Each structure stands twice: as structure tokens, then as C-alpha cells.
TrEMBL record:
Protein name, UniProt field: VOC family protein
The organism's taxonomic lineage, starting at the top: Bacteria, Bacillati, Actinomycetota, Actinomycetes, Streptosporangiales
Entry-linked Pfam families: Glyoxalase
Domain VOC residue range list: 4-128
PROSITE patterns hit by this protein: GLYOXALASE_I_1 (PS00934), VOC (PS51819)
PANTHER family: LYASE, PUTATIVE-RELATED-RELATED, SLL5075 PROTEIN
InterPro entries hit by this protein: Fosfomycin_Res_Enzymes, Glyas_Bleomycin-R_OHBP_Dase, Glyas_Fos-R_dOase_dom, Glyoxalase_1_CS, VOC_core
Region (Disordered): 127-147
Signal peptide location: none
Metal-binding recorded as keyword: yes
Keyword entries, A-Z: Metal-binding
Length: 147
């Protein structure tokens, strides 16, 4: 038996704001949505494949101190794609951790940008190579674990 991640479902406080955020940062398209009161949701796709579902059924901010999701990581082909996403993230005024693009750890060439969505859900967009010329923000530990 083999498992691979299907799609990711997130609870959000404002489905419209989150939809626009994920469309702009990731280039996702709307595959399906509901505007029915009490049942608002959006299905977001990439090249016809469902990637992310947003469900408007939460309040407040993402609780990093509680058990559950730590962060979502998306990989792209190269560091230039990470930088393009970082520009959009900054235009949207999202929280960016570590000051921008950083390696995954000491001596790593892979790396990315670590940031938050409108509800404070921690996200990462990374590339397998090209970030090794920058210092790692966390000594002796993976960057993605401590933001």
C-alpha cells in the first residue's frame, strides 16, 4: 500500500479573504465554491487537480501552541519561483518569518520563504536548491520547525 497526500482542508475565518490570498500567492483557480450561509467553502485547484479546500467555520487566529497542524509546505522547481511568490506575499502584507528566503538548516542548499496566511496558518514555499548562500536562522535545528 502506498499513500500520498490528496488535498489539504483548512478552516478559515473569512473564506473570501483566504480565497484571494491563496489564489494570488499560489496561482490556484476556483474549482467549486458555496456562498450559502453557514456552509461557505471554496475548492482550489492547480491544473485541474484539487489542492486546497477552505471551510469558513472558525474564529480567531491559528493556535500554534495547541496540538495539530504545525505548517504546510509547498515545493516549487527553483529559487526564482520562491522569490516570485515572496514578492506577492509581501505585496499582500502577510507576516514573513526569518526576514525572507533562508535555507532549511545549516549547510543545506534547499530553502524557502516561511510566512502566514490571513488566519495565521504557517506556510512554507521552498525549492530543492539555491538557498545555501544564506545563513540558517536556527542553529542546530531545521528552519521549518521553529517559526
Amino acid at each position: 500500500m502506498s499513500f500520498q497526500t490528496g488535498h489539504i482542508g483548512l478552516n478559515v475565518t473569512d473564506v473570501e479573504a483566504s480565497k484571494e490570498f491563496y489564489r494570488r500567492v499560489f496561482g490556484f483557480t476556483v474549482a467549486r465554491e458555496s456562498e450559502e450561509d453557514g456552509r461557505r467553502y471554496v475548492f482550489l485547484a492547480e491544473n485541474g487537480t484539487l489542492k486546497l479546500t477552505l471551510w469558513q467555520q472558525s474564529e480567531g487566529r491559528f493556535a500554534t501552541a495547541r496540538p495539530g497542524l504545525h505548517h504546510l509546505s509547498f515545493q516549487v522547481a527553483d529559487l526564482e519561483a520562491v522569490r516570485r511568490a515572496e514578492r506577492v506575499i509581501r505585496e499582500l502584507g502577510a507576516v514573513v518569518h526569518h526576514g525572507g528566503v533562508v535555507p532549511h538548516g545549516e549547510g543545506a542548499t534547499s530553502g524557502g520563504v516561511f510566512f502566514e496566511d490571513p488566519d495565521g496558518i504557517r506556510l512554507e514555499i521552498s525549492a530543492p536548491d539555491g538557498a545555501g548562500d544564506r545563513p540558517a536562522p536556527t542553529t542546530g535545528a531545521p528552519t521549518c520547525g521553529f517559526f
